[in-house]
Amino acid sequence: MSRDNTKLSRRAFTTAGLASLGVTAACGNGIGNTNNVKIDARVNTTLNQMYNRYPGTRDLAEKSAGMLVIPLVTEAGFIFGGAYGRGALRINGATVDYYAAIKGNAGLQIGAQQYAHVLFFMTDAALARFRRSSGWTAGADLEYVVKDEGNALTADTNTLTAPVIAAVFGQAGLRIGATLEGSKYTRIIP
């Protein structure tokens, strides 16, 4: 093996090790237990915080066909990164399923952050597509009403007609700009 290949192998090994640290940090997000009672309690707390801080989200909740509430997502990365969180799908105020949110990414990044998010499924069709999928992925077409910097609720006529609306709030950490694009949601059994 030439000297250049040795440097490349060491660099690749170091990068892979740092990436695994980021993913491991993302998995240790404080939820700690898939117990459905604990997840439901955290979902209730998260919804209360969201409704108190952004009162307009109550109206969205009432108009939605269902909501996926992920109380805590931990995202960390250094070149490669990942995020993980668990939550509950609520329809008419009752939990019907539990989900995990997982995200992986690569690029110029460093740091860690934690945040909560709620997906409002505004149509029965959007909710049905989500529930039928074996792993639904959030795309760039997701509309945001509350995003990172703690902005007040901003919803216009275009936002309110979107099939899926996201509220991302409660950010803490060293990374800026939480986004849900590329997050994959998979049903879990607590």
TrEMBL record:
Annotated keywords: Signal
Record has Signal as a keyword: yes
Domain Ysc84 actin-binding: 104-186
InterPro entries: Ysc84_actin-binding
Signal peptide: 1-25
A Pfam family this chain is assigned to: Ysc84
Name of this chain's protein: YSC84-related protein
Organism encoding this protein: Tritonibacter scottomollicae (Epibacterium scottomollicae)
